[in-house]
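Colleagues,

For the teaching module next term, I've prepared a clean inverse folding example: a structure given as tokens, and then the sequence designed for it. I'd like students to try predicting residues themselves before seeing the answer, so please don't circulate the second half yet.
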């Protein structure tokens, strides 16, 4: 094993998140976040050795400028020569990729071809890849796709019940997201429970600001709640999740909003934020619910109830349930949400242990149910960056 470090990049349309990791130990040596890209007051914040430092990107306020500033920061700390490869989070690999891949011109073309499937994300991912190729000259680049892990879903799980020509002509189908997190958490859960992952029927709930669930059997994704886009499925921070598709025409007819405005409304103003009329942040909602705020109480109940219904349906996809796994900011920290969900799922054989539920927070893994000999619920912190770094090291031969 080499002592080279991996740079992991996660690019959004106006942001860039980066981390430098030792892929063997998981140690993060530096992390950064560039914000307001493409605006004149863009800046990047570095975190290294427990210190924070902010640098203006006014001279070149775009993804290339951010990657350039990152190289300068690495040089300042003598880390630049230790970087062996760059791993990129890429949102959609469509049907082309079921695994991570070393990037060449053909891969770049395929990522470009998937832009209609992820119109906001894939262009930003491509900018990040091109910037890394320009600035970290000669280093291998690896693409790790959010969709890849779900490519094992059977056709009956990924096909929408609309005329099939739209699948044939436009690749319109369910793809799912959060795949890198599911892959990491599925492995970790099996290890934590001391079981062979191929013998575990798992339902994993990745609950962050974006949230989804997935059914895993034989270590493979069988189904997941997000679809063509991340809007399908659970109630999320600002996304509605599932609703009657006729809500679109109802809103258009009755409010005069256009398609893009309704899409924005359902993606950015709905979910916990829309119901509570307070915040998309689960912590704030919990604080206000504790004071009796009606909207916050309803938002939490809908979030948990809809999630529990999905857990039960994902148990169908997994062929049963051995482990319900919670991860993501809410899954790893909100004892309240977990208690509600496990409560709804008692009929699946889960019985909450309150003490264990409170102990498994703030980065601590743990089983949170009584030992009944049947299914367990367990909290496993996710680490997508480490998964990307490990894939990158392996595919780069480091
Ligand atoms: P993520 O997108 O994975 O970073 O998760 C963000 C979500 O996790 C936000 O809704 C946060 O409010 C939520 N979260 C983080 N810490 C806590 C906590 N201690 N209790 C409840 N929710 C939390």
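(Answer key — instructors only)
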């Amino acid at each position: 094993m080499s002592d080279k470090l991996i740079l992991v990049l996660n690019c959004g349309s106006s942001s860039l998140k980066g981390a430098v990791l030792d892929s063997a130990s998981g140690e993060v040596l530096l992390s950064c976040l560039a914000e307001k890209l493409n605006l004149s007051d863009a800046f990047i914040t570095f975190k290294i050795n427990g210190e924070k430092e902010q640098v203006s990107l006014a001279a070149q306020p775009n993804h290339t400028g951010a990657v350039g500033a990152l190289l300068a920061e690495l040089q300042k700390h003598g880390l630049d020569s230790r970087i062996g490869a760059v791993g990129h989070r890429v949102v959609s690999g469509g049907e082309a990729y079921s695994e991570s891949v070393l990037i060449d011109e053909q891969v770049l073309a395929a990522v470009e071809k998937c832009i209609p499937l992820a119109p906001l994300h894939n262009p930003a991912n491509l900018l990040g890849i091109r910037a890394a190729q320009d600035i970290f000259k000669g280093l291998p680049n690896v693409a790790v796709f959010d969709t890849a892990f779900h490519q094992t879903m059977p056709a009956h799980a990924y096909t929408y019940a609309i005329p099939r020509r739209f699948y044939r002509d436009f690749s319109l189908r369910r793809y799912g997201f959060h795949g890198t997190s599911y892959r990491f958490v599925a492995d970790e859960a099996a290890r934590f429970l001391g079981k062979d992952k191929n013998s575990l029927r798992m339902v994993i709930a990745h609950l962050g600001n974006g949230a989804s669930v997935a059914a895993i059997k034989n270590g493979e994704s069988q189904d997941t709640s997000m679809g063509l886009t991340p809007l399908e499925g659970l109630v999320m921070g600002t996304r509605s999740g599932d609703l009657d598709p006729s809500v679109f025409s109802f809103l258009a007819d009755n409010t005069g909003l256009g398609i893009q405005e309704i899409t924005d409304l359902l993606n950015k103003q709905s979910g916990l934020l829309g119901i509570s009329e307070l915040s998309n942040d689960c912590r704030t909602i919990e604080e206000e619910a504790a004071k009796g705020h009606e909207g916050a109480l309803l938002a939490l109940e809908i979030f948990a109830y809809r999630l529990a219904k999905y857990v039960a349906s994902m148990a169908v996809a997994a062929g049963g349930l051995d482990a319900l796994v919670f991860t993501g900011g809410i899954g790893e920290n909100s004892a309240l949400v977990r208690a509600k969900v496990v409560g709804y799922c008692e009929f699946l054989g889960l019985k909450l242990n309150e003490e264990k539920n409170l102990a498994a927070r703030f980065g601590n893994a743990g089983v949170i149910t009584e030992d009944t000999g049947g299914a367990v619920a367990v909290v496993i912190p996710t680490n997508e960056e480490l998964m990307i770094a490990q894939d990158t090291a392996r595919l780069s031969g480091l």
